[in-house]
Design brief:
298 residues, alpha/beta, Rossmann fold, DNA polymerase, domain 1, 8 strands, binds S-adenosylmethionine
Length: 298
């Protein structure tokens, strides 16, 4: 909340409403004027609508992908905003509701992983429909999984015998694909593959940079954007997006003067990302990999 330094009567956007933890804090602690609360998960919107009912006159709920910046602004009748928050990835609610299929602990859950239950593509389609090359690409690029080729090959082998239906069946394949010694390090052996498939299903990285750029464009001068990421791939995108806007000049660094005419649009507030301290880690172990980066519109 301090990152956003909320203004009296300001207009704020929670791009990732989830369980409304951040939004309820914002509304209860600061005299803001309006909150646009976005999520693509209808369950999250319904649960949060109840939680935020004391401030219902100030909140507009939008079921959308936060990448649809102009649609959201048009729908809410807003042109400029004073702060934007993104708390990326999967919510605790999604992870803990095993039937949503996000968790490698959800043995009998169907392979789903859709944040927007109305979209067509699910984890089932990726696992049962993608070719070997695409599976390897996803596991490598989105999961940084060094055993990607073995896992992909074993998925295809299994598919020759039967359709892979549950999270548990996929975990068994991953487990059998990773050598015993490697299974003992780096957390649960299925963690990276599940992350990779989830990122593919929800298109988590594809439009992130564009969305950050467009939300920054919609900020009033002095308005802030705060982005919390949970893995290095996301964090890199945020870091690069902010850097390019702070220093957009494309001239040769040895040139005496700038001729490209591109001027900075943000000041980066966090040279290094803010991470959870010991107390927060104790209270909320899921904050372990969280990184918060903040930029201010010039
Ligand atoms: C980490 S949780 C947010 C938790 C929230 N900050 C809270 O305090 O409860 C991420 C949420 O953002 C949603 N989400 C992720 N990517 C999205 C996107 N591109 N567009 C809209 N919602 C998204 C997910 O459905 C999930 O509910």
């Amino acid at each position: 909340m301090q990152a956003l330094s909320p203004r009296e009567n300001g207009i704020y956007v929670d791009c990732t409403l989830g369980g409304a933890g951040h939004s309820s804090l914002l509304l209860s602690q600061y005299p803001i004027g309006k909150l646009i609360a976005i999520d693509k998960d209808r369950d999250a919107l319904e649960a949060s609508e109840k939680r935020l009912s004391p401030w219902k006159d100030k909140v507009t709920f939008v079921k959308s992908d936060f990448k649809c910046v102009s649609d959201v602004l048009e729908h809410t009748g807003v042109e400029r905003v004073d702060g934007v928050l993104m708390d990326l990835g999967v919510s605790s609610y999604q992870l803990d509701n095993y039937e949503r299929g996000f968790s490698y602990r959800a043995t009998d859950a169907p392979l789903d992983m859709r944040q927007d239950a109305e979209q067509a593509l699910s984890a089932f389609d990726v696992v049962n429909g993608y070719g070997e090359r695409d599976l390897i690409r996803i596991l490598r690029d989105y999961g940084e999984e060094r055993f990607a080729p073995r896992i992909a090959r074993n998925i295809l082998r299994k598919r020759e015998q039967q359709v892979i239906r549950t999270c548990g069946e996929l975990v068994d394949i991953i487990y059998a694909s990773i050598p015993a010694a490697a299974r003992r390090t780096g957390g649960h052996p299925a963690k990276r593959t599940f992350q990779a498939i989830r990122i593919e299903v929800n298109g988590e990285l594809l439009y992130l940079k564009q969305a950050i750029n467009e939300w920054i464009e919609a900020l009033n001068p002095g308005g802030r954007i705060a982005v919390i990421t949970f893995h290095s791939l996301e964090d890199r995108i945020v870091k690069t997006a902010f850097k390019e806007l702070e220093n957009p000049c494309t001239c040769d660094p040895r040139a005496p003067i700038c001729t490209c005419g591109k001027v900075p649009t943000v000041k980066i507030i966090t040279k290094k990302p803010i991470e959870a301290n010991e107390q927060e880690l104790e209270e909320n172990p899921r904050s372990q990999s969280a990184k918060l980066r903040i930029a201010e519109k010039l």
